[in-house]
Amino acid sequence: MCGLASPGYSLVLILVGIIYILETLSDILQVGYFKLTHGKRIFRMAPLHHHLELGGWSEVKLFCVFSGVTLLACVLAFLGVMGR
Fold first, then answer.
1. What is the Cα Rg of the chain in Å?
2. Nearest 10 degrees: CA dihedral of 4, 68, 32, 45?
3. Higher pLDDT, 2 or 1
């Protein structure tokens, strides 16, 4: 067995997929809040990247920022694994 089931690797998966997690959570929060408050919103639009686009961010800027965050999170995950 390759040992990928150890508890420490779960944190690595969270770091590597942080953008996907944030996008999903923004959608879940928006729908839940909308239902609880009968029509009020947290974000202009969900998921998160649509909210940022409506705030004036271009697709290129979104791509660069999201890619940079993913790259940084992957480097941190790699350093965390290499430190074991």
1. 16
2. -150
3. 2
The first and second tokens of residue 70, run together, are 């993913």
pTM of the model: 0.81
Tell me the CA end-to-end span of the chain in Å, nearest whole number.
18
Tell me 83's DSSP state: T
Q: What is the mean pLDDT of residues 18-41?
A: 96
CA–CA distance, 34 with 36 (Å, rounded to integer):
6
The neighbour count for residue 8, using CB atoms within 10 Å, is: 10
Largest CA distance in the chain: 50
Which 8-state DSSP code applies to residue 38? T
**Residue labelled with tokens 């998921």:** 47
